[in-house]
Amino acid sequence: MSLFDGLARSTPSTSAPQPGVNFLTIVVSRPMVFLPAGFPALEVRSAAWLDCYTSNNSGRFMAPKPLHDRLGETLARNGWFAKRPAALKARLIALAQVSTAEAGHWIYDTGDEAEGLYGVLSGSVTSHVVLDNGESVPVSISGPGSIFGYAAQVLGGKRVTTVIARERSEIIFVPQHAISAMVQEMPSLWLHFAELATEQLVWAVRGYAELVRLSPRAQIASRLHGYTFPWGGGGAATIPVRQEELAELMGLSRKTVNLVLRDFERQKLIETGYRHIRVLDPAGLHRIAMETTQ
Questions:
Q1: pLDDT in tens, 41-54
Q2: What distance lies between CA 51 and its chain's CA centroid?
Q3: Mean pLDDT estimate for the chain
Q4: How far is CA 13 from CA 27, 33, 81, in A?
Q5: Domain ranges of the chain
């Protein structure tokens, strides 16, 4: 069951929020609020843009930052989104629905109907592939600015992965019926979404090719370099991944990953810490990832 199943078709009076999901205040040209029962009352402003309210540990709400600004800033880290026409980016931001998923919450499951595209505004999610024997294998982590889940539109309309929140995360969702309506107005936009689906398939194939051809050292360098984009815009970044988690994602032993990371530390490419890896020299990692197979 998708995190957003029924959201686009529901009304506040008939929708029941799922456990573990807190919906953010959404303010449009006519104010209306979609909140679970018991959620603290929020001031609703009459505006033609979206507001996002956050709270501190005292439960008091702090000043909101326009959600459309946060969406634009975060999605700009995504290579596909950054290259789209301004009109398309604006429409996608306007159509985006944002909710909060707690750690461990399933965003969607393998075999679910593909009903739109997803993204990460804050936090991160893990994608799993389910093998024929029923084993669920984690294969990738998607951080802020990532867009995922659209390739299923060209794979029979069914989800081919299971995606789960790694931590408390803000998840972006744009319903497929909204995308279809937008493209009916501007048919040329289909090409952009075809590019998105193709790009996601290419990344999956590329990951397999790296597994087959690259050394463990080059594989790890490539993966860490890739993670600098959601967490650092391609520059130095603190990546919230544990060494044992990185080993599982890459199908390598913890000993191998530990040895490679220690070597990277000696070269001043990274620093390891508690539940994170800080990338100091993304360009250096990229050079290692580009090393030819001996």
A1: 333 222 233 444 44
A2: 20
A3: 79
A4: 17, 11, 34
A5: 73-208, 214-289
Closest CA to 24 of 63, 49, 54: 54
Spell out where 153-285 has E strands. 162-165, 169-175, 237-239, 270-273, 276-279
Query: How far apart (Å, rounded) are the C-alpha atoms in residues 99 and 91?
Result: 19
CB-based contact 190:183 (threshold 8 Å): yes
214-289 classified as CATH 3.40.50.300: no
Structure-block tokens of residue 202: 């290419």
Is 2.60.120.10 the CATH number for 73-208?
yes
70/83 Cα distance (integer angstroms): 18
Is 17 within 8 Å of 36 (Cβ atoms)?
yes
Would you say residue 209 has pLDDT above 80?
Answer: no
Terminal C-alpha separation, the chain: 46
How many contiguous H segments (helices) and E segments (strands) does the chain have?
9, 14
Q: What is the pLDDT of residues 216-247, one digit of tens each?
A: 999 999 999 999 999 998 899 999 999 999 99
